[in-house]
Specification:
The chain is 39% helix and 18% strand. The chain binds thiamine diphosphate and magnesium ion.
């Protein structure tokens, strides 16, 4: 006989869970108690937003579901942002929520919510487990749904009396996702369509990517001299130094890569969602039947015909497709010049315009490109500072970018906490803004408590810069709601027990960065920047002038 809490934790263990993020609540004490005896490392966060974002990042970095435990009502609603990101970003995640006792259900008891309803439109699936005996069955289903097809978040509500109940039930086995290989005739058709093209482009995105998938896709692209672009915040899917890599289809997209997608006559989209961002608001690829010949590869058949009508739809696990494509006889590339030109354009985007003020983010990013080891992990939230962080970074290994494709502020710090826990020996850099940082700064306490030496680079322009940029563009000079009065960030960092410094000049950055790494503690380096340079190629005064 085991309690519901014990049965649940046993299912986590046999599914290989080694780390879980929580904010405790009295609604799931039997689960916490079972974790007391478990090898699973339980990391206590300071806000459910942080716990949920950290577990989302765990799912993104490991490919196995991130586990998040929160209490009912207020805990669950605060965790919702991480569930939303896991959905938009196709990351496997399981949110476990305490629930009122079964006998009180439907009375709007204290902190009661109907989780299936609340999360129905956010998660991939959400339901309530109502007997301890069926926990193994429900957990197996939760893992299958989180990992299968297009990965995503699952929410399970756990009535507190059910967790305390004893049951005699056998465990299920570890959930593995079935691999679906592409059909031989699909590969043949792909080769034919590609052979008929002159300006092909391969586009890679989320949906069960692995390091092996990266290597195989890159080998396929290089063997055929094909240009490959990454979807927004999937920049670590291909080695950016490859002669085939031509850039990222992200927010603040470079004109050259936008034109390359618009002018392509053939697009092979491996994973990804062909969503609003990589298609630049559905203009570079026009729904429903784009001008480009479209080959769509996705493990989830329901994604294949979404928004766009492909010329060829291939339902396959991305790694199986990648391995099979690598095995295809290479074609004589009529597009070699097209690819070389794309590569040259990409290399051009790494050059930055000098920035106003004493701190030049382009220079700092150029330094980091040289300084950061290949396995360094970069995280961020949302804001214009990310445009520098993405545009001027070069990724060489899969699993080194943990950023929210959902564009959610507050993600970077908890994601850095998760990244450093998973990879204790890697350098973890969190790019953040003055607005973005304050949204999840309590997780600095988590980083201190668990002795995680993450380096936070905090770009301070004294405003919610992204929104100011749009505001000045649409309503020049009418500044409202976007100015920020900020705390003394280095002092705040030190108060948490972290290392804190303000870097006043570009030339001081290197020393400060080395001191941050050398401190062995979480570190916050504030970079005060001139608000005039609102984005790498946009000046505030020019926007205002129209
Ligand atoms: C949770 C959340 N709330 C609001 C927004 C809208 N938003 C996007 S960027 C941004 C400003 C971010 O400010 P900051 O971190 O200072 O970065 P900056 O743009 O100034 O570089 C806001 C408010 C969002 N993306 N996510
Ligand atoms: Mg700002």
């Amino acid at each position: 006989m085991r309690t519901g809490g014990r049965i649940l934790v046993d299912q986590l263990e046999l599914n290989g869970v080694d780390l879980a993020f929580c904010l405790p609540g009295e609604s799931y004490l039997p689960v916490l108690d079972a974790l007391y005896d478990s090898p699973i490392r339980l990391v206590t966060c300071r806000h459910e937003q942080g716990a949920a974002n950290a577990s989302e990042a765990y799912g993104k970095l490991t490919g196995r579901p991130g586990i998040c435990l929160v209490t009912r009502g207020p805990g669950a609603t605060q965790a919702a942002v991480g569930v939303h990101t896991a959905k938009q970003d196709s990351s496997p995640m399981i949110l476990l929520v305490g629930q009122v006792p079964r006998a009180f259900r439907g009375r709007e008891a204290w902190q009661e919510l109907d989780y299936a309803q609340v999360f129905g439109g956010i998660a991939k699936a959400a339901w309530e487990v109502d007997s301890a005996e069926r926990i193994p069955e429900h957990m197996a289903e939760a893992f299958s749904i989180a990992l299968g097809g297009r990965p995503g978040p699952v929410v399970l509500a756990l009535p507190e009396d059910m967790l305390a109940e004893q049951a005699d039930v056998a465990d299920r086995s570890r959930v593995e996702v079935e691999h679906v290989a592409p059909r031989a005739d699909d590969l043949e058709r792909l080769r034919e369509l590609l052979a008929g093209s002159e300006r092909p482009l391969v586009l890679v995105g989320e949906g069960g990517w692995t390091a092996e998938t990266s290597r195989d896709v890159q080998a396929f692209c290089e063997a055929n001299a094909l240009p490959v672009a990454c979807a927004f915040r999937c920049q670590d899917f291909v080695d950016n130094r490859s002669p085939s890599y031509v850039g990222v289809l992200g927010v603040a997209m470079d004109e050259a890569i936008a034109a390359r997608l618009r002018n392509a006559d053939f697009v092979l989209a491996i994973g990804g969602r062909l969503g609003e961002v990589p298609t630049r608001r559905y203009t570079l690829l026009e729904p429903p039947d784009p001008r480009q010949t479209l080959v769509r590869v996705h493990p989830d058949a329901s994604e294949l015909g979404r928004v766009y009508e492909p010329d060829l739809a291939v339902a396959a696990t991305l790694s199986d497709f990648a391995a099979a494509s690598r095995g295809l006889d290479p074609l004589e590339p009529r597009w070699r010049e097209w690819t070389t030109a794309g590569r040259a354009e990409y290399e051009g985007t790494l050059l930055h315009e000098p920035m106003e003020g004493a701190v030049d983010l382009g220079e700092i990013m150029a330094f980091l490109r040289q300084r950061l080891p290949g396995d360094a992990i970069q995280t961020c939230g949302a804001g214009n500072f990310t445009v520098w962080a993405h545009r001027f970074a070069q990724f060489t290994q899969f699993g080194t970018q943990a950023c929210p494709r959902s564009g959610s502020m507050g993600y970077g710090l908890p994601a850095a906490v998760a990244a450093q826990l998973i990879h204790p020996d890697s350098v973890v850099v969190c790019f953040t803004g003055d607005g973005d940082f304050v949204m999840s700064s309590p997780e600095l306490a988590t980083a201190v408590q668990y002795e995680l030496p993450i380096v936070v680079l905090l770009v301070n322009n004294g405003m919610y810069g992204t929104i100011r940029m749009h505001q000045e563009r649409q309503f020049p000079g009418r500044v409202v709601g976007t100015d920020l009065e900020n705390p003394d960030f280095p002092a705040l960092a030190r108060a948490y027990g972290a290392h804190g410094e303000r870097v006043e000049r570009t030339e001081d950055f290197e020393g400060a960065f080395e001191r941050a790494l050398g401190s062995g503690k979480p570190a916050v380096l504030e970079l005060p920047v001139d608000p005039e340079r609102i984005s790498p190629r946009v000046k505030l005064s020019e926007l205002r002038a129209g």
